[in-house]
Amino acid sequence: MSRTTMRAPNADWTDPDCPVARTLDLVGDRWSLLVIRDAMDGARSFTEFQRRTGIARNILTDRLRKLTAHGLLAQRTAPSGRRQEYVLTEAGRDLFPVVVTLRQWGERHAFAPGETHSTLVDQHGTPVPEIAPTSADGSLLGDDTTHVRKTR
What we know:
Blueprint: H1 19-27, H2 30-40, H3 46-53, H4 57-69, E1 73-77, E2 84-88, H5 90-93, H6 96-109
Antiparallel strand pairs: 1-2
């Protein structure tokens, strides 16, 4: 969602002042990010999402409804005109670096050495470089070189 469409704080937010907590409230369950991942990989229909993830129909229905309600996915008529399909919105596409970072963390920490796993590559077949936050001067940032500042 763009900043202009984000809802005001409400009792449902885990931590109303924390962007990380709000993001997790929107996409932090197991299935939501997998639906977003598959949408990024071209899934459009309910059937495709279900086939790719193995998610139960009722849970998938709930996640698609939630992701659509919060502006991460939009529904449109499929080119065939016979069914609805789901497409990423700008807010959904903005999760791409998040998904890539989670993927890269998983490649480093969720597999045994030498264990087979998928790899994200660019349009030329080259593995996507590691994503790392940098400061304005280009130096690498970490938990030891940053802190949270409250704004008001």
